[in-house]
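Re: the 499-residue chain
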Amino acid sequence: MKESKIKTENKERIVALFSILTTTVYPIFFMYFKNIFEARERHLIVITLVYLVISAFATIILYLFKKNMVRTAFIANMVLTILYNFEFFVSLFGAKTYSYIICSVLSIAGIILIIYLSKILLPDTIHKLNGIWAFTIIVLLVMDFIPAAPHMKEKLVSQLPSAQSGEIVTDTPAVTDPVQNLEETESDHPNVYLMIFDEYGGYENLLRYYDFDNSDFLSKMEDLGFNVSKSSFNVESISTITNVPNLFNLDYVVDHKEEEATYLTYLRNPYIYRFFKEHGYTINTTSYPAFLDDTQSALSYDNRELYEDTVGYFILKNSLLIHVYDGLIAPNMNGSEFSSNDNTGTYLIEAMNFYKGFSKLNDKGPNFNLGYFSCPHIPLCFKSDGTPISAKEVEEDFAYCYIEYLKWANIQIKDIASGIIADDPESIIIIMSDHGSRTLVNDEDKSLTDPDHYKENILNCVYMKGEDLDIEGLTGINTLITVLNTEYDTDIPFKEYKK
């Protein structure tokens, strides 16, 4: 009889611990299955270990009070569910002015109710509830896994060297001499260079928020042979993870009813990749920080260790832990949210230098050379003279520091563009931003009260083999469509965004 009781108690403990384990790992695997192609498995290891340690610590603390594992697990499952999913619950209520209050009240009420039930319910009943809880989570995981399984297989196959003729480079440092890795091919089409500079304010954006006239730089770009639009707006949003997927698919593919993390799935082998591959192009990518789909690239530079929005970060964003990360951990890693440490600027320069090497491939084309640079987006790295920007300077005068960083970016853009034109004068070069500056810039804080219109104003410059091309007032999407229709004799219709 005593042996049977011990077996029963052991079984109850196992079920209790297993229910805590499923509660802990569910938000991790849920996000992973939803973002198979963007997720890097090594990032899951870190966040999983963090969550397991937290869950273990919480379980031990609760056990010291309850002295019973079954009742401990019953309470722990509620506490951990709130801890790991609080921000997700908040997002369900939409408006954050009151949603935090609602979720906080509901969370406290839920914990009080669970504690009360743990006292009045029989252990056997609580054991069954723990089992039902664990079983429900397993069912949900299986439901998430089934649609993700084919994509997991596709991802594995796409990363095999035999999946394409060129060498696939993933999660690697910069290649010293990218030219040696490509074979010479012949084509009547020019090499195409597309560079995206994140949060580079358009002409009207800079005038409104910074009282800064960027005409000098734009005139220099025109002197190089670029067609420049001062009145281009990406009207769908002021968010990179919306605008860039839309841009690369030449359509408004992002549905804001979907979970934010899923927007990045539209970057996987987007339309623009398929278009150029169908026209015989080799794709090369440079991404700082890691943002682009490099599984299709013959040559690739990205430093994914710098990419804040890894799958692990998205998992944190759904939890209360994001406030600990943003408030205590991230500032110690980067100085502050707005200013960088030396490594950030070093990797940015490294990525830009790698991109410059693409112009040496002009006899090994045609090549579609895609670059994404989180610049002059925060954190702010350099002044116009190349010296670092400190956290104190940003705190004292953000507007000055942003414009200094933008001036530094202007120097780099002109240098890259000049080098490409010198090496590859018959090329097509497209330089644009995804949206304008959005950040608090002055005492009046117009950026918070203004409609998004001014923040949608983008940088938009096109070098069309030295020829004229009318792009004034075009969105980023319609600018790319104009370039493709002009060069490749296609008939892609303009896209109009309907709010």
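The chain has two domains: 2-153, 159-488.
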